[in-house]
């Protein structure tokens, strides 16, 4: 996995970019859920999604005549889920906060007057800032647990819709589905693991920050 990520970053670094550049700002809601197995390897099937806040900022570079963009940026993501185990009568709750760096591509496939629709895909390296797990009446700090990684890798993909307000700015709406590649790992004979699933709904702005016009 680390080799794949390094290869991707080197590929992105070698891309020939134009002078056309945009700043993007976005915020919205994240509905997250977890694929969780306890220490005995038993799945918890009745976890419920919890809505949390996210915020992102970054840059968007034009790569060709207006249909392919290279993106990179940073984001602040909050995830959570609640659930119970009817067999063992246990209650579970997670509350996680990650700081993230993302890089990826936007591919515009439809344009009509001031509207455009793109497919956005990126990969993010997320570092755990704060994390708690509640089991019944006990609260555990995930950051101090050997069974949870402080680094999480997320793959994100989904549509991006933008509406041009002027030659300098556009309002945008985005949905992305995210899936974690690395979130937790059991130690020894411990089969506990946690995989993160997330749906992000965002509203934001694209702002041209160079003298060269960059289409939306």
- Mean pLDDT over the full residue set: 81
How many β strands by DSSP? 9
| Secondary-structure element series | HEEEEEEEEE
Number of helices: 1
Which range best describes the helical content: under 10%, 10-25%, 25-40%, 40-55%, 55-70% or over 70%?
Answer: under 10%
Structural class: mainly beta
Largest sheet: 8 strands, antiparallel, barrel
The outline comes out as elongated
- Rg, Å, rounded: 19 Å
- Low-confidence segments, ≥5 residues, pLDDT <50? 12-17
Termini gap = 33 Å
What fraction strand? over 45%
Strand order of the largest sheet: 1-2-3-4-5-7-8-9
Quick summary:
By secondary structure, this protein is mostly beta strands. It has one helix at residues 2-13; strands at residues 21-37, 48-62, 68-85, 90-112, 115-135, 138-141, 148-164, 169-184, 193-208.
What's the SSE blueprint?
Layout: H1 2-13, E1 21-37, E2 48-62, E3 68-85, E4 90-112, E5 115-135, E6 138-141, E7 148-164, E8 169-184, E9 193-208
Antiparallel strand pairs: 1-2, 1-9, 2-3, 3-4, 4-5, 5-6, 5-7, 7-8, 8-9
Q: Explain this structure to me?
A:
With 216 residues, the protein is mainly beta. The chain has one helix and nine strands, in the order H-E-E-E-E-E-E-E-E-E. It has an eight-stranded antiparallel β-barrel with strand order 1-2-3-4-5-7-8-9. The protein is elongated, with a radius of gyration of 19 Å. 26% of the residues are buried.
